[in-house]
Write a structure and sequence with these properties.
Layout: H1 2-28, H2 33-38, H3 43-62, H4 64-71, E1 75-77, H5 83-99, E2 105-109, E3 115-118, E4 126-130, H6 131-136, H7 139-154, H8 157-183, H9 191-194, H10 198-242, H11 246-256, H12 286-294
Amino acid sequence: MKRLFLFLLTNLAAVAMLTVVATLVCALCGVNLEEALGEGGYGPLFLFALVFGMAGSLVSLFLSKTVVKATMKCRTVDGSEGPAERWLVETVRDLSSRAGVKTPEVAIYPGAANAFATGAFKNSALVAVSTDIMGQMTREELRAVLAHEMSHVANGDMVTMSLTQGVINTFVIFFAHVLAGVIHGSRALDSGRSRRGAGGYAVYHLTVQLFQMAFGIFASLVVMWYSRRREFAADAGSARLLGAPGPMIAALRRLGNLQPGVLPDSIKAFGISGKMASLFASHPPLEARIDALMNLPPDTGV
């Protein structure tokens, strides 16, 4: 529940910030944003929702590497630091060549067992592993984990997940405004004619926020379902890059015996670890992932 709360709070904060900026800009230009959106039916409202729904998601995507490096205390390595770092960088370079993408930045961060990939573009990504996962996995297992993350990069999962979240944000914002307008006896954002006074304006927007939170809970089910599908695809991608599913199976079994590290919500879907079976989980249960790897069809190239 804490993860879900933070997830919703992050989305609401991004949308709220952009709304405030838009309102201030319109005020400086002498434009009444609410009245402008109220004209022309629901078309302007949907465009408004699309712009702000996608903007929050894309801003998070483009800032992902910078924010993650700072919050996770990532230490970028180039292989000159020591034998462990050299093996890590050379392994990522080899896997990126096999995956057909440019070698991403490689980083190590302090924390419990986990790894993740992030970045706005597949050819300028970041792959990071925790100190614990480096110390507790064999090199074959860690190579499989890195192959899993490189599959996320090669598949463009960071961009796809962000676009998916943006589309869902759009519909959440749109329907929240529509239903708030219905409750207050007016159409969409037609506040200039139907909700006169600061009190009515504030109550309307409070209703919008409540609807956005409620719809956001249900919308997150779709995002997490899609994230779980991408995990199965990244596991299969690891098997393809390594030529066999065995190393990835061994890595997942090892993760089952380790205490996984917690990742920020913005990159949780691109981590390696996930044990809980839940509709709100970003990862499938480890047992389901192992079963899927053991039953890969022969035409997958492994």
